[in-house]
C-alpha cells in the first residue's frame, strides 16, 4: 500500500523523535560510563570515553556549521543570527538544533491538508542532512565507543551493568543510523524504486553482521595490546585516507573543508564500507572487504597466540567461530541483497512508491540537497544510469 504524503510525513516525524531519543540515550550512557570509571579510579578509561565523545561531537558540529554556511541565503527562512548559530555549534548543540528544526518543518507540513511541494521538498532537505550527520556520528563516536567498552570488558574479565547499557545503546545507535541513512538516500533518486521491509531488513542485518567481527577483532587486539592499537589505527587510517583522496572526492562546499570529509570517510572505512565516488562499486567494495578481512585475520592471529594474557581465557575460544560465522553470513546476505534486493534491480517510476518526490521538471526552485544527492548517485550507480535514459527519471527533476 503506497504511503500518502501526509502519512509519510507522520512516519518521518515518529522516526525523527525516535532518532533524537536514541542519540540522547547513547550520549547519556557514555557520560554515565565515564562517570562510573572516574568514580572507581579508572581515570584513563574515563578520559578515553570523553575524548572520543568530544572529538566526534566537534566534527559533527563542524560539518553542520559548514553546511549551513554553504546553503543558499534565505533557504532556511527565519532562524537565529549567524553568531547565535555559531554559538550553538560551539556549545555542541548544533546537531540537536537541526533535529528540532527538522521536526518543526515536518510538523508544519503534516498539519496542512495538502502539503505544498516546497514544504515537502524542504522537509526532505533537512532530513537528509540529519541522516548524514547521524551516520557520521555513528562511526566517529558510537562504533569506537563500542570497541572501547568491549576492550575494557575483555581486559577486566567482567562487565558492569553500565557497560552493558553502553554496549546495547551503541548497537541501537549504529543500527538506527544505518537503516535511516539507507532510507533517506532513496529520496534523492531521480525515480525511487520499490524497497520493501524485507529489503531494508536484509540490508540492515548484513551491515551489522560484517561490522560485528571487525569491532570484535579490534577490541580483542586493544585488550591485549592497548599501547599499540593507536598505531594500528593510525597506520590503516592513513592508507585509507590516501585511497579516499585518490578517488577525487568533491563533497564539501570548499576545498579546505574537503579534508574533514575525507578524514571522516577514512574512519568509516576502518570499520565498514562506504562508497565515495561514482561508477560501479563492485571492484572497490571487493578490494576494501579483502583489505579489512586480511587486517582482521592478522589481529585475530595475534590475540589467539596471546589469549592467556586476558582474564577468563576460556570464553575467548568461542569468539573465533562466532566472529567467523557472523562474517560468512554477512557476506552471504550482502551477495543476496545486491543480486536480488538492491533497489536498482527493481526499477519502477516514482509514483508507485507513494513517496513525496513526484515533481515535474519545472520545479527547479525547490530545495535540492546536493550533498545527499551526490552520495545517492554513488550508492545507486545503476539507478543513476537508468535515470540518464530519456523517459526514465525525468519526472523528478527538482528533488
TrEMBL record:
<dbReference type="GO" id="GO:0097350">
    <property type="term" value="P:neutrophil clearance"/>
</dbReference>
<dbReference type="GO" id="GO:0051649">
    <property type="term" value="P:establishment of localization in cell"/>
</dbReference>
<feature type="transmembrane region" description="Helical">
    <location>
        <begin position="259"/>
        <end position="276"/>
    </location>
</feature>
<protein>
    <recommendedName>
        <fullName>XK-related protein</fullName>
    </recommendedName>
</protein>
<dbReference type="Pfam" id="PF09815">
    <property type="entry name" value="XK-related"/>
</dbReference>
<dbReference type="GO" id="GO:0070782">
    <property type="term" value="P:phosphatidylserine exposure on apoptotic cell surface"/>
</dbReference>
<dbReference type="GO" id="GO:0045663">
    <property type="term" value="P:positive regulation of myoblast differentiation"/>
</dbReference>
<keyword id="KW-1133">Transmembrane helix</keyword>
<feature type="transmembrane region" description="Helical">
    <location>
        <begin position="318"/>
        <end position="337"/>
    </location>
</feature>
<keyword id="KW-0472">Membrane</keyword>
<dbReference type="InterPro" id="IPR018629">
    <property type="entry name" value="XK-rel"/>
</dbReference>
<dbReference type="GO" id="GO:0005886">
    <property type="term" value="C:plasma membrane"/>
</dbReference>
<feature type="transmembrane region" description="Helical">
    <location>
        <begin position="161"/>
        <end position="181"/>
    </location>
</feature>
<dbReference type="GO" id="GO:0002513">
    <property type="term" value="P:tolerance induction to self antigen"/>
</dbReference>
<keyword id="KW-0053">Apoptosis</keyword>
<keyword id="KW-1003">Cell membrane</keyword>
<dbReference type="InterPro" id="IPR050895">
    <property type="entry name" value="XK-related_scramblase"/>
</dbReference>
<dbReference type="GO" id="GO:1902742">
    <property type="term" value="P:apoptotic process involved in development"/>
</dbReference>
<feature type="transmembrane region" description="Helical">
    <location>
        <begin position="43"/>
        <end position="68"/>
    </location>
</feature>
<dbReference type="GO" id="GO:0043652">
    <property type="term" value="P:engulfment of apoptotic cell"/>
</dbReference>
<feature type="transmembrane region" description="Helical">
    <location>
        <begin position="228"/>
        <end position="247"/>
    </location>
</feature>
<feature type="transmembrane region" description="Helical">
    <location>
        <begin position="201"/>
        <end position="221"/>
    </location>
</feature>
<keyword id="KW-0812">Transmembrane</keyword>
<dbReference type="GO" id="GO:0017128">
    <property type="term" value="F:phospholipid scramblase activity"/>
</dbReference>
<comment type="similarity">
    <text>Belongs to the XK family.</text>
</comment>
<feature type="transmembrane region" description="Helical">
    <location>
        <begin position="288"/>
        <end position="306"/>
    </location>
</feature>
